[in-house]
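Quick illustration for those who missed Monday's session on complexes.
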Amino acid sequence: MRAIGIERGAERPALLEVPRPDPESGEALVRTLRVGVDGTDHEVIAGHHGGPPAGEDHLVLGHEAVGVVEAGAGPLEPDDIVVPTVRRPPNGEGNRYFERGEADMAPPGAALERGIDGAHGFMSEYFTSPAEYLIEVPADLAEWGFLVEPISIAEKALELAYASRSSFGWEPETALVLGNGSLGLLTVAMLRADYEVYCVGRRDRPDPTIDIIEALGATYVDSRETPVDEVPAVYEPADLVFEATGYAKHAFRSVEALGPNGVAALLGVPEPWTFEVDGGRLHKEMVMYNKAVVGSVNSGPRHFRAAVDRLAAMPEWFLEDLLTRVVPVESFEAAFEESKTTIKTAVEFEP
Ligand code: NAP
Ligand code: BGC
Ligand code: ZN
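Prediction with zinc ion bound:
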Protein backbone atom coordinates (compact mmCIF):
# COMPACT_ATOMS: atom_id res chain seq x y z
CA MET A 1 0.00 0.00 0.00
CA ARG A 2 1.01 3.63 -0.45
CA ALA A 3 2.38 5.64 2.45
CA ILE A 4 3.97 9.06 2.76
CA GLY A 5 7.10 9.04 4.84
CA ILE A 6 10.42 10.69 5.48
CA GLU A 7 13.56 8.63 4.95
CA ARG A 8 16.46 9.06 7.37
CA GLY A 9 18.62 11.99 6.21
CA ALA A 10 16.16 13.05 3.45
CA GLU A 11 14.99 16.67 3.19
CA ARG A 12 11.59 15.97 1.69
CA PRO A 13 8.87 13.35 2.19
CA ALA A 14 8.54 10.52 -0.34
CA LEU A 15 5.79 8.20 -1.54
CA LEU A 16 6.70 4.77 -0.16
CA GLU A 17 5.37 1.28 -0.83
CA VAL A 18 4.91 -0.50 2.51
CA PRO A 19 3.12 -3.73 3.49
CA ARG A 20 -0.55 -3.40 4.41
CA PRO A 21 -0.76 -4.04 8.17
CA ASP A 22 -2.55 -7.07 9.61
CA PRO A 23 -4.48 -6.33 12.79
CA GLU A 24 -3.34 -8.28 15.83
CA SER A 25 -5.71 -9.43 18.54
CA GLY A 26 -7.53 -6.40 19.99
CA GLU A 27 -6.60 -4.21 17.04
CA ALA A 28 -8.88 -2.69 14.42
CA LEU A 29 -7.94 -2.26 10.76
CA VAL A 30 -8.74 1.28 9.64
CA ARG A 31 -8.93 2.64 6.07
CA THR A 32 -7.54 6.15 6.11
CA LEU A 33 -9.75 9.00 4.86
CA ARG A 34 -7.81 12.18 5.59
CA VAL A 35 -4.62 13.12 7.46
CA GLY A 36 -3.84 16.72 8.49
CA VAL A 37 -0.44 18.40 8.32
CA ASP A 38 0.71 20.73 11.12
CA GLY A 39 3.78 22.65 12.31
CA THR A 40 5.12 19.52 14.04
CA ASP A 41 5.23 17.62 10.71
CA HIS A 42 7.48 20.36 9.33
CA GLU A 43 9.70 20.12 12.43
CA VAL A 44 9.92 16.31 11.97
CA ILE A 45 10.73 16.66 8.25
CA ALA A 46 13.44 19.23 9.08
CA GLY A 47 14.98 16.71 11.51
CA HIS A 48 14.38 18.95 14.55
CA HIS A 49 11.95 16.68 16.34
CA GLY A 50 11.21 12.94 16.58
CA GLY A 51 12.43 10.38 14.04
CA PRO A 52 11.93 6.84 12.62
CA PRO A 53 11.30 3.73 14.74
CA ALA A 54 14.52 2.24 16.18
CA GLY A 55 16.41 0.27 13.55
CA GLU A 56 14.28 1.54 10.62
CA ASP A 57 15.30 3.86 7.83
CA HIS A 58 12.05 5.80 7.44
CA LEU A 59 9.10 7.20 9.36
CA VAL A 60 5.57 7.11 7.95
CA LEU A 61 4.28 10.62 8.68
CA GLY A 62 0.88 11.77 9.93
CA HIS A 63 -0.59 12.08 13.42
CA GLU A 64 -3.88 13.93 12.68
CA ALA A 65 -5.98 11.19 11.08
CA VAL A 66 -9.53 10.10 10.49
CA GLY A 67 -10.52 6.78 8.98
CA VAL A 68 -13.23 4.18 8.61
CA VAL A 69 -13.08 0.83 10.39
CA GLU A 70 -12.72 -2.12 8.00
CA ALA A 71 -12.17 -4.87 10.57
CA GLY A 72 -13.57 -4.14 14.02
CA ALA A 73 -12.19 -4.78 17.48
CA GLY A 74 -13.61 -4.25 20.96
CA PRO A 75 -16.71 -2.06 20.63
CA LEU A 76 -15.77 -0.91 17.10
CA GLU A 77 -17.60 -2.25 14.08
CA PRO A 78 -16.97 -1.96 10.34
CA ASP A 79 -17.97 1.46 8.92
CA ASP A 80 -17.47 3.26 12.23
CA ILE A 81 -15.58 6.55 11.77
CA VAL A 82 -12.60 6.79 14.11
CA VAL A 83 -9.73 9.08 15.06
CA PRO A 84 -6.54 7.59 16.58
CA THR A 85 -4.72 9.02 19.59
CA VAL A 86 -1.00 9.57 19.03
CA ARG A 87 0.99 7.99 21.87
CA ARG A 88 1.85 4.31 22.22
CA PRO A 89 3.90 2.46 24.85
CA PRO A 90 7.61 2.01 24.06
CA ASN A 91 8.60 -1.59 23.09
CA GLY A 92 4.93 -2.56 23.41
CA GLU A 93 5.41 -2.42 27.18
CA GLY A 94 3.18 -0.32 29.39
CA ASN A 95 4.43 1.96 32.12
CA ARG A 96 2.69 3.85 34.88
CA TYR A 97 1.53 6.62 32.54
CA PHE A 98 -0.16 4.16 30.18
CA GLU A 99 -1.52 2.10 33.09
CA ARG A 100 -3.25 5.23 34.41
CA GLY A 101 -4.57 6.14 30.94
CA GLU A 102 -2.36 9.26 31.07
CA ALA A 103 0.10 8.65 28.25
CA ASP A 104 -0.04 12.38 27.49
CA MET A 105 1.72 13.02 30.82
CA ALA A 106 4.65 10.70 29.99
CA PRO A 107 8.02 12.44 29.61
CA PRO A 108 10.01 11.99 26.38
CA GLY A 109 11.34 8.42 26.28
CA ALA A 110 8.36 6.98 28.13
CA ALA A 111 6.08 7.09 25.08
CA LEU A 112 6.35 6.76 21.31
CA GLU A 113 4.37 9.15 19.13
CA ARG A 114 2.89 7.77 15.91
CA GLY A 115 4.00 9.79 12.90
CA ILE A 116 6.38 11.85 15.04
CA ASP A 117 8.71 9.94 17.31
CA GLY A 118 9.69 6.28 17.06
CA ALA A 119 6.46 4.84 15.61
CA HIS A 120 4.95 4.97 12.13
CA GLY A 121 2.09 7.40 11.60
CA PHE A 122 -1.22 7.29 9.80
CA MET A 123 -0.36 8.74 6.38
CA SER A 124 -0.92 5.41 4.61
CA GLU A 125 -3.88 3.77 2.96
CA TYR A 126 -4.56 1.62 6.03
CA PHE A 127 -3.39 1.53 9.64
CA THR A 128 -4.02 -0.72 12.61
CA SER A 129 -4.49 0.31 16.22
CA PRO A 130 -5.66 -1.22 19.49
CA ALA A 131 -9.33 -0.27 19.84
CA GLU A 132 -8.58 1.56 23.12
CA TYR A 133 -6.66 4.20 21.16
CA LEU A 134 -9.44 4.85 18.65
CA ILE A 135 -12.08 7.50 19.37
CA GLU A 136 -15.42 7.30 17.58
CA VAL A 137 -16.60 10.30 15.58
CA PRO A 138 -20.15 10.82 14.22
CA ALA A 139 -20.33 9.93 10.52
CA ASP A 140 -21.41 13.45 9.56
CA LEU A 141 -18.08 14.78 10.90
CA ALA A 142 -15.94 12.32 8.90
CA GLU A 143 -14.54 14.94 6.51
CA TRP A 144 -13.41 17.15 9.44
CA GLY A 145 -12.34 14.35 11.78
CA PHE A 146 -8.62 14.97 11.22
CA LEU A 147 -9.11 18.20 13.22
CA VAL A 148 -10.05 16.27 16.37
CA GLU A 149 -6.38 15.67 17.27
CA PRO A 150 -5.27 19.34 17.10
CA ILE A 151 -8.44 20.48 18.89
CA SER A 152 -7.70 17.88 21.60
CA ILE A 153 -4.27 19.51 22.08
CA ALA A 154 -6.00 22.81 22.89
CA GLU A 155 -8.53 21.01 25.13
CA LYS A 156 -5.75 19.53 27.23
CA ALA A 157 -3.87 22.82 27.53
CA LEU A 158 -7.05 24.61 28.64
CA GLU A 159 -7.76 21.84 31.15
CA LEU A 160 -4.29 22.26 32.68
CA ALA A 161 -4.64 26.04 32.73
CA TYR A 162 -8.04 25.90 34.44
CA ALA A 163 -6.77 23.27 36.91
CA SER A 164 -3.99 25.65 37.97
CA ARG A 165 -6.62 28.35 38.74
CA SER A 166 -9.14 26.02 40.42
CA SER A 167 -8.35 26.94 44.03
CA PHE A 168 -9.96 30.37 43.88
CA GLY A 169 -12.78 32.27 42.17
CA TRP A 170 -11.20 32.69 38.75
CA GLU A 171 -13.46 34.50 36.30
CA PRO A 172 -11.45 34.82 33.10
CA GLU A 173 -12.76 37.22 30.45
CA THR A 174 -9.84 37.96 28.14
CA ALA A 175 -7.70 35.47 26.17
CA LEU A 176 -4.57 36.16 24.14
CA VAL A 177 -3.75 33.47 21.57
CA LEU A 178 -0.17 33.64 20.29
CA GLY A 179 0.07 32.28 16.75
CA ASN A 180 -2.23 32.37 13.73
CA GLY A 181 -1.30 28.93 12.42
CA SER A 182 -3.85 26.11 12.47
CA LEU A 183 -3.53 25.47 16.22
CA GLY A 184 -3.86 29.16 17.04
CA LEU A 185 -6.91 29.63 14.82
CA LEU A 186 -8.66 26.50 16.13
CA THR A 187 -8.09 27.86 19.64
CA VAL A 188 -9.53 31.27 18.73
CA ALA A 189 -12.61 29.44 17.40
CA MET A 190 -12.86 27.49 20.67
CA LEU A 191 -12.49 30.49 22.98
CA ARG A 192 -14.52 33.11 21.15
CA ALA A 193 -17.83 32.14 22.81
CA ASP A 194 -16.50 32.66 26.34
CA TYR A 195 -13.71 35.24 26.00
CA GLU A 196 -12.78 38.56 24.47
CA VAL A 197 -10.07 37.08 22.22
CA TYR A 198 -6.90 38.67 20.83
CA CYS A 199 -4.72 36.71 18.38
CA VAL A 200 -1.07 37.53 17.73
CA GLY A 201 0.62 37.13 14.32
CA ARG A 202 3.34 38.82 12.34
CA ARG A 203 1.70 39.29 8.95
CA ASP A 204 0.61 42.18 6.75
CA ARG A 205 -2.95 42.56 5.53
CA PRO A 206 -4.53 41.25 3.36
CA ASP A 207 -4.06 37.81 4.86
CA PRO A 208 -6.51 34.90 5.10
CA THR A 209 -5.68 34.19 8.76
CA ILE A 210 -6.42 37.80 9.75
CA ASP A 211 -9.74 37.55 7.88
CA ILE A 212 -10.63 34.43 9.90
CA ILE A 213 -9.58 36.02 13.21
CA GLU A 214 -11.81 39.03 12.54
CA ALA A 215 -14.72 36.99 11.18
CA LEU A 216 -14.62 35.02 14.45
CA GLY A 217 -15.05 38.33 16.29
CA ALA A 218 -11.47 38.39 17.67
CA THR A 219 -8.86 41.18 17.37
CA TYR A 220 -5.66 40.73 15.35
CA VAL A 221 -2.48 41.92 17.11
CA ASP A 222 0.69 42.35 15.03
CA SER A 223 3.64 41.41 17.25
CA ARG A 224 5.99 43.54 15.08
CA GLU A 225 4.06 46.62 16.27
CA THR A 226 2.98 45.43 19.71
CA PRO A 227 5.38 43.00 21.42
CA VAL A 228 3.53 40.47 23.54
CA ASP A 229 4.56 42.10 26.85
CA GLU A 230 3.08 45.42 25.65
CA VAL A 231 -0.36 43.96 24.89
CA PRO A 232 -1.79 45.08 28.28
CA ALA A 233 -0.81 48.72 27.63
CA VAL A 234 -2.09 48.83 24.04
CA TYR A 235 -5.10 46.49 24.36
CA GLU A 236 -5.84 44.89 27.76
CA PRO A 237 -4.23 42.37 30.14
CA ALA A 238 -5.04 38.73 29.43
CA ASP A 239 -6.50 36.30 31.95
CA LEU A 240 -5.36 33.44 29.73
CA VAL A 241 -2.47 33.27 27.26
CA PHE A 242 -2.30 30.35 24.83
CA GLU A 243 1.09 30.14 23.10
CA ALA A 244 1.07 28.32 19.73
CA THR A 245 4.06 29.76 17.87
CA GLY A 246 7.19 27.94 19.06
CA TYR A 247 8.74 31.44 19.41
CA ALA A 248 10.47 31.30 22.80
CA LYS A 249 10.52 35.08 23.43
CA HIS A 250 6.72 35.11 23.33
CA ALA A 251 6.68 32.51 26.11
CA PHE A 252 8.64 34.75 28.48
CA ARG A 253 6.80 37.91 27.43
CA SER A 254 3.49 36.19 28.09
CA VAL A 255 4.09 36.56 31.86
CA GLU A 256 3.81 40.33 31.47
CA ALA A 257 0.89 40.01 29.06
CA LEU A 258 -1.12 38.40 31.88
CA GLY A 259 -3.30 40.31 34.30
CA PRO A 260 -3.33 39.45 38.02
CA ASN A 261 -4.05 35.74 38.71
CA GLY A 262 -3.70 34.90 35.00
CA VAL A 263 -2.28 31.75 33.46
CA ALA A 264 -0.23 31.14 30.33
CA ALA A 265 -0.28 27.76 28.60
CA LEU A 266 2.78 27.08 26.45
CA LEU A 267 2.52 24.65 23.53
CA GLY A 268 5.25 25.60 21.05
CA VAL A 269 8.25 23.32 20.63
CA PRO A 270 11.23 25.64 19.95
CA GLU A 271 14.82 24.85 19.14
CA PRO A 272 17.46 25.84 21.73
CA TRP A 273 17.87 29.65 21.71
CA THR A 274 19.86 31.82 24.12
CA PHE A 275 18.59 35.36 24.78
CA GLU A 276 18.48 37.79 27.69
CA VAL A 277 15.51 38.02 30.05
CA ASP A 278 15.08 40.00 33.27
CA GLY A 279 14.66 36.92 35.47
CA GLY A 280 14.18 38.90 38.67
CA ARG A 281 11.34 40.88 37.14
CA LEU A 282 9.60 37.76 35.82
CA HIS A 283 10.01 35.93 39.12
CA LYS A 284 8.59 38.84 41.14
CA GLU A 285 5.75 39.38 38.65
CA MET A 286 4.66 35.75 38.96
CA VAL A 287 4.79 35.78 42.75
CA MET A 288 3.22 39.18 43.46
CA TYR A 289 0.39 38.70 40.94
CA ASN A 290 -0.25 34.98 41.54
CA LYS A 291 0.47 34.15 37.92
CA ALA A 292 1.00 30.64 36.51
CA VAL A 293 2.74 29.24 33.46
CA VAL A 294 1.95 25.68 32.39
CA GLY A 295 3.51 23.63 29.62
CA SER A 296 1.30 21.16 27.79
CA VAL A 297 2.05 18.41 25.29
CA ASN A 298 -0.09 15.80 23.60
CA SER A 299 -3.61 14.80 24.72
CA GLY A 300 -5.56 11.74 25.82
CA PRO A 301 -8.90 10.07 25.08
CA ARG A 302 -10.83 12.46 27.38
CA HIS A 303 -9.48 15.43 25.42
CA PHE A 304 -10.27 13.73 22.10
CA ARG A 305 -13.88 13.17 23.17
CA ALA A 306 -14.22 16.81 24.25
CA ALA A 307 -12.68 17.80 20.91
CA VAL A 308 -15.35 15.83 18.98
CA ASP A 309 -18.06 17.92 20.68
CA ARG A 310 -16.08 21.12 20.15
CA LEU A 311 -15.63 20.30 16.44
CA ALA A 312 -19.36 19.65 16.05
CA ALA A 313 -20.04 23.17 17.42
CA MET A 314 -17.63 24.98 15.07
CA PRO A 315 -19.26 26.94 12.25
CA GLU A 316 -19.00 25.31 8.82
CA TRP A 317 -17.66 28.53 7.21
CA PHE A 318 -14.74 28.50 9.66
CA LEU A 319 -13.79 24.90 8.86
CA GLU A 320 -14.03 25.58 5.14
CA ASP A 321 -11.89 28.73 5.35
CA LEU A 322 -9.34 26.98 7.60
CA LEU A 323 -8.89 23.97 5.28
CA THR A 324 -7.22 25.74 2.39
CA ARG A 325 -5.72 22.66 0.72
CA VAL A 326 -6.93 19.08 0.27
CA VAL A 327 -4.25 17.10 -1.54
CA PRO A 328 -4.82 13.67 -3.11
CA VAL A 329 -2.17 11.18 -1.97
CA GLU A 330 -0.54 11.01 -5.42
CA SER A 331 0.16 14.80 -5.30
CA PHE A 332 1.56 14.53 -1.76
CA GLU A 333 4.48 16.97 -2.41
CA ALA A 334 2.01 19.86 -2.46
CA ALA A 335 0.91 19.01 1.08
CA PHE A 336 4.30 20.03 2.48
CA GLU A 337 4.89 23.25 0.54
CA GLU A 338 4.64 26.21 2.89
CA SER A 339 2.86 29.33 1.64
CA LYS A 340 1.14 32.34 3.17
CA THR A 341 -2.15 31.41 1.53
CA THR A 342 -2.19 27.93 3.06
CA ILE A 343 -3.56 27.56 6.56
CA LYS A 344 -4.46 23.90 6.99
CA THR A 345 -3.67 21.06 4.62
CA ALA A 346 -5.13 17.57 4.58
CA VAL A 347 -3.91 14.62 2.52
CA GLU A 348 -6.87 12.67 1.17
CA PHE A 349 -6.92 8.95 0.43
CA GLU A 350 -9.37 7.58 -2.15
CA PRO A 351 -12.92 7.08 -0.94
P1 NAP B 1 2.19 26.56 12.40
O1 NAP B 1 1.06 26.29 11.46
O2 NAP B 1 3.59 26.58 11.92
O3 NAP B 1 1.83 27.97 13.08
C1 NAP B 1 2.73 28.74 13.82
C2 NAP B 1 2.23 30.16 13.72
O4 NAP B 1 2.96 30.99 14.62
C3 NAP B 1 2.40 30.72 12.33
O5 NAP B 1 1.19 31.31 11.92
C4 NAP B 1 3.49 31.76 12.49
O6 NAP B 1 3.33 32.89 11.66
C5 NAP B 1 3.29 32.18 13.94
N1 NAP B 1 4.51 32.72 14.50
C6 NAP B 1 5.72 32.13 14.57
N2 NAP B 1 6.61 32.97 15.15
C7 NAP B 1 5.94 34.10 15.42
C8 NAP B 1 6.31 35.35 15.97
N3 NAP B 1 7.57 35.59 16.35
N4 NAP B 1 5.36 36.29 16.14
C9 NAP B 1 4.11 36.08 15.73
N5 NAP B 1 3.69 34.91 15.18
C10 NAP B 1 4.60 33.95 15.01
O7 NAP B 1 2.14 25.54 13.58
P2 NAP B 1 0.88 24.92 14.37
O8 NAP B 1 0.60 23.58 13.84
O9 NAP B 1 -0.21 25.90 14.45
O10 NAP B 1 1.58 24.71 15.80
C11 NAP B 1 2.03 25.82 16.55
C12 NAP B 1 3.16 25.41 17.48
O11 NAP B 1 2.63 24.49 18.44
C13 NAP B 1 4.34 24.68 16.82
O12 NAP B 1 5.54 25.02 17.51
C14 NAP B 1 4.03 23.21 17.07
O13 NAP B 1 5.17 22.39 17.13
C15 NAP B 1 3.38 23.28 18.41
N6 NAP B 1 2.46 22.19 18.71
C16 NAP B 1 2.55 21.68 19.95
C17 NAP B 1 1.67 20.71 20.35
C18 NAP B 1 1.77 20.21 21.75
O14 NAP B 1 1.26 19.11 22.03
N7 NAP B 1 2.36 20.96 22.67
C19 NAP B 1 0.71 20.23 19.45
C20 NAP B 1 0.63 20.79 18.17
C21 NAP B 1 1.51 21.79 17.81
P3 NAP B 1 3.83 32.92 10.11
O15 NAP B 1 3.07 31.84 9.42
O16 NAP B 1 3.42 34.27 9.64
O17 NAP B 1 5.31 32.65 10.13
C1 BGC C 1 1.16 16.53 18.32
C2 BGC C 1 1.16 15.93 19.70
C3 BGC C 1 2.59 15.62 20.10
C4 BGC C 1 3.42 16.89 20.00
C5 BGC C 1 4.89 16.69 20.39
C6 BGC C 1 2.06 17.71 18.28
O1 BGC C 1 2.02 18.25 16.99
O2 BGC C 1 -0.14 16.96 17.92
O3 BGC C 1 0.35 14.79 19.70
O4 BGC C 1 2.63 15.11 21.41
O5 BGC C 1 3.37 17.38 18.67
O6 BGC C 1 5.55 15.80 19.56
ZN1 ZN D 1 0.21 17.97 15.95
